[in-house]
Task: structure prediction
Amino acid sequence: MAKILIIGGGAAGMAAAVFLGEHGHQVHVFEKNEKLGKKLFITGKGRCNLTNSCDEETFFQSVVSNEKFLYSAFHGFSNEDAIAYFEKLGLPLKEERGGRIFPQSDHSSDVIKVLERRMKELDVKIHLKSQVKDLLLQEIKEGQHKVTGVRLENEQEIAGDKVIVATGGMSYQATGSTGDGYEFAKHAGHKVTSLRSALVPMETKEEYIPRMQGLALKNVRFTVKDGKKVLYQDFGELLFTHFGISGPLVLTASSYIGKKLEKKELQGTIDLKAALTEEQLDARLLREFEAGKNKQFKNVISGMFPAKMFPVILELGKIPPEKKVNEITKAQRMEFLRVVKNFPITITGLRGFREAIITQGGVKTGEINPKTMESKKTEGLYFVGEVLDLDAVTGGFNLQIAWSTAKAAADYIEL
Result:
């Protein structure tokens, strides 16, 4: 029986504790908060989208950073395995749009409860309000170390055979994700890649965006380009805010454009009528013009756009609102259509870690054994979950990364 110390009682830490306990190890979890799973509690708007039922190819397409590193861990504990495992623990699950898997109760607290219950059954020792200050390292030979335990904030030293770092990233810092794991990694000789907020809203330049604050658009196509190169494009929902844009399309896009956005502003466009080609939209507009040929332009098209957006569309479309539709030239009509199909947005930056769902960047995966999650720099030290330079889009994929990496570490550590 090995004595395993886990730093962090979030998703990856709790999962690692359960898996290790099932293998018969003596497990201690050190959590700085007053309870386990604080970030898990607010995940998925408090409903906890704990994995996704998609096929393997779709899963890896949904991983943004270092998907190849995950191959071994995912095959050791896949999304199907996660679904079966949580149901075995007594958590009824349901599937929603896009393969998202949630607890039937819609309560993230139920995910935490089944993991806590299992830990208690396995006699896992949980140390709350116990912040780890540092790793205890011993030099084996020149340039090579092994981990021998942890030092707590109160200077108490606790010995352990292995240490698993499951501290999460920098997002939702109120839940305790303040980047401690990156400092532990550096102390153990690891590189930490550039950190940025991901799955996060975007800030924009145009003054007309805040005027539409609160307006949600469905069935639109959102595109972000760097010059002529398309960095991101997808179809779905988007929301205007007082600072810019948010919503599912925007959060996903943020993971793909963050690096480029650190260097310069990027141009985004929204296709407001994505279901129609430009020719089909023109035909519809001509029908509206024909039906109200003696009416003013603003009165003919008012039903085509949400009320909050209507004044903005009129401004950008450059057709005088009072102009009679039978006086509008083809060139004016085509210019208006271009705005509808390419509603312009200048993206100036991403919001910070306070609003980010996850952190992009982390412990360099090249320095970690992908089969075992053990450090290649320090013997007996493991990294699991968001502290690694691994991230995916929304839809349950990031929690699956936590479960898979935790299982890989737990399966490798021998009695």
The first strand starts at residue 3 and ends at 7.
